[in-house]
UniProtKB/TrEMBL annotation:
Residue span, Response regulatory domain: 5-127
One GO term (biological process): phosphorelay signal transduction system
Protein name: Response regulator receiver domain-containing protein
PROSITE patterns tied to this protein: RESPONSE_REGULATORY (PS50110)
Length: 135
């Protein structure tokens, strides 16, 4: 079974660890790459080169606070560089639907649950849907 490559752009180290653990827990094997800022994500893309975008990035999760890198829209930049469609999910701290307009171009918006068990279950559902059904 091929490993799926997931990029997580998250400034909360606790959330990043939970996400990584959930993606690595049984099921589809995943290589989870962590970036703690939008700039770090942009640097990751530069380091990986075009090969990353041609066929090996399967999913991106971005904290809503990190969708802008200065004047650069991280989501638009990923979509522009990607040779294939890369699903992008924005993780929010709020259930307020009006926040979704701040990150146009994302494929999905999910509110982070406050309870750890609910958070891990949400990430498992993301993994199952986006990496097993869609990809």
């Amino acid at each position: 079974m091929n490993h799926k490559n997931v990029l997580v752009v998250e400034n909360s180290i606790l959330d990043a660890i939970l996400i990584k653990e959930a993606f690595n827990h049984k099921g589809i094997p995943c290589n989870v790459h962590l970036a703690q800022s939008g700039k770090e994500a942009m640097d990751f893309f530069k380091e990986q080169g075009l090969t990353l975008f041609s066929n090996s990035l399967d999913l991106v999760l971005i904290n809503e606070e990190l969708t802008q890198v200065g004047e650069v829209d991280l989501i638009a930049s990923i979509k522009e560089k990607a040779a294939t469609m890369v699903p992008i999910i924005v993780l929010t701290d709020t259930k307020d639907q009006s926040q979704q307009s701040q990150a146009p171009g994302a494929n999905s918006y999910l509110a982070k649950p406050l309870e750890v068990t609910d958070f891990v279950n949400m990430i498992n559902k993301v993994k199952n849907y986006w990496l097993e059904v869609v990809c």
